[in-house]
Amino acid sequence: RAARMVNMSQLGAALNDLAEPPVKALFNYNSNPAAIAPNHNAVRRGLRREDLFTVVLEQMQTDTADYADILLPVTTFLEHTDLYLAYGHYFLQMARPVLPAPGETRSNVEIFRELARRMGFEDDCFDESEDDMMRGLLRSGHKFLEGITLERLEREGFIRLNVSAPGEPFLPFAEGGFGTASGKCEFRAETIGYEPPVESRRGDRALLNKFPLELISPKHHDSMNSTFGNQPRLDRETSELTVHPDDAAPRGLQSGDSVRVFNHRGACVLRARVAAEVPAGVVSSPSTRWAKGAPDGVNINALTSERLTDIGGGPTFYSCLVQVEKNGD
Question: Which CATH number covers residue 278?
Answer without folding.
Answer: 2.40.40.20
